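Dissemination and training. As part of the outreach component of the grant, students in the summer workshop were shown how a complex can be specified as a set of sequence lines and then modelled as a single object. The example used during the hands-on session is reproduced here so that future cohorts can follow it. Participants entered these lines:
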Amino acid sequence: METLALLWDGILAATDPAIFACTILGAVVGLLIGALPGLGPTAGVAIMLPVAAGFGGVAAIACLGGVYYGSMFGGAITSILLGIPGDAPSVMTVIDGYPMAQKGEAGRALGTSVFASFVGGLLGIAGLVALSVPVSRYALAFGPTEMTAMMCFALSLLSVLGGRNAFKGFVALALGLWLGMVGLDPISALPRYTGGSMNLFDGLDFSIVAVGLFGLTAIFTSLEANVDKPVAKYTFASLLPRMSDAVQTRWQLLQGSVLGFFVGVLPGVGASAATMLSYALAKRLSPTPEKYGTGIVEGVAAPEAANNSASYGAMIPLFTLGIPGSATTAVMMGGLIMIGLQPGPLLFTENPQFVWSVFGSFAIGNLALVFLTLLLTPLLAAALFVPTAYLYPIVIAIVVYGVFAIDNSTFNVMLTILAGGAGIILARLDYPAVPLILGLVLGPLLERNIRRTLIQSQGDLLVFIERPIALGLFIATVLVLSIPLFLKLTGRKKIAADEAEV
Amino acid sequence: MTYGLSNFVNHGRVVGLGLLTAAAIAVSAAAAEYPDKDIKMIIPFGAGGGSDTLARTIAGVIEEMKLIPVKILPENRTGGSGAVGYSVVAKEKGDPYHLATVSVSFFTTPLLGGSPVSYKDFTPLAAIAQSPYIMVVPTSSEYQKLDDLKKTPRFTTGTTGVVSDAALLAKMTSNALGIQIDSVPFDGEGEVMAALLGGHVNVGFLNPSEAMAQMKAGKLRPLAITSAERSPAFPDIPTFKELGYGEILHTQLRGLVMPADVPPEVVTYWEGILQKVATSEQWKKQYIDRFHDIPDYVDAEGFKQVLERTNARYETMMKELGIIK
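and obtained this result:
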């Protein structure tokens, strides 16, 4: 009850004109980014980060959050109308959405996806609000020892569920871990890999690297992806969600939302995996599984509910423990740090006003997106045909200017462009960028916490298994790492691969 | 060839011009026309942080009280743990139109070899407040007063970065009480606080503003304060000196510096301005009351001595830790 009152206060605070405007701006940008093929939530948040950081406080994070869940709404538009996934978390929406469009039910599919996204978002926000306070209270129990175990768990999930090519994933992860070592050694203060450069003393700022690696690279690589398919036809009236569809898909909506949320909470796994699992679950539980893939509303509802609720689930470890479990939340953490807030256990006690206003903005944004998506779908569909030669230079200019504006540093601009270039090479060689950025973020956290633990214990390694939370997480890590072995022994196929975004 | 030669000559002319300008500045300062243009206040750290707030508040108060005829323009130049910003100021040798505030990195980054400039490349002007540290334990701990710590041989404390005032104080307290307080480096004040409240470290040396909130909430118990006298903001917290450990005396001075070799008239000018700031109602309201610092005016000479002493302390600690030779 008290939590609801806090959320209500947060919603009221988020109706402040400036915060509301930033929320809507973020949501619209997210819709557009989600709809553009190749650009996903990570790229979107990375592109908006430098701009949003300038808004400061609640407005900045409300805006970044808007981009994040807005892109979950937007991804479906391209998936349904063109049969091309707008971003990785909407890949599963293509499977039933596009056949529906071909049957002449594009409007119905879009309406269902909007409704499913809204329900997923609503349940996701409910979960975020209900769980984050108890989790944050418990989070103080997470000292260096527990954090070490948590990082191991996150990295194990990332390596097992992380992608099609485990070897290349490990290489990218190792690269990220190495880049994370650049700068002053956090414990003994000796410079590492700085080449004597003053600019590298503080290490590589992961949010700046992410802006290049996700924002710029996505733009560079999708310059080649031309949309030349015809857009499926629909009428505006058909977009409106139907009551009968809502009732028909109620179980898929619920399953998708709940499953998506909990998959999202797990560090190292993200919205894309959530959509795959939720689609697979809906199909398995259905009395008529053979209908999936032929264009049914249930097949659209399940993944669309899942990716939205997963985006809120992923914010729990970020806000309560200060651990970004996915590339998108890693970039959001950069935003929090830029506006002078340290995400972690104390965020809720020391800045409750901030946290609840941000959560309030999520609730407003989620509702607003229902109308925004319905109203803007014709425009967004048209935006897909704006030549990239006009659209992308503008975006690149905004990114570069924004990065410079953060702290007037030309070094950061160069770092962004360099990261963007490196991202193209990685993409060409088919190395995933997500393990790299997570290595860059989680690696230093892992190293610091191992060394802090050992200072506390005066070098005694037994502390890692003497503390119950740490022991539990280490056991979970071992279990996750043995999944591939188990699947091999029982002769089953690989687990669903998580393509581009985590 | 001729082109190269004429280039050389031009270059020489430019240098000559520069020297003339420098001389002109010195003369005009001596002629008491200083300052005759806007003054840059370089902030070597990001917007919104502690150093940023300090610098902008000082600039704001000077502007509000109309103490100088020109503007102070704050500018954030971040990077290299302060090295970038401090280098910008130090390279303007003799130019009284660049200001900076002092921070922990002002000493530590140069000592670590991470900066081409050190405290010797600056002229201290004056300090207008001092920020003490408060030694605290969680309320749940058994230690009621400082001497209770002697019952236990070993403690841990959290510090922001490896070389910090908290680490320095841990060392001083260890020596004075005959106990061992090991410093665990964290990445920010928030992390240190979380580790302290979560029971992952046993004692803390905190800034007044950080300690205040948690002491009010009943989560932390103060044991002693590191200033020479009790702080007006915390009249109930005894000083280390009172408790018989007079050697534990260490506060952070909030002061301003300019590049090396600015004329002595300029230093006197700023001493006058900063003394007015230090005793003003605006400064008390906007900074002292907000961050619970101790109001204190220290002139250029006194400030210089504190800077030298602080640097020596850090240097000794880093040598003891084996960080530098």
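The radius of gyration of chain B is 22 Å. Students were then asked to discuss how this feature might be tested experimentally.
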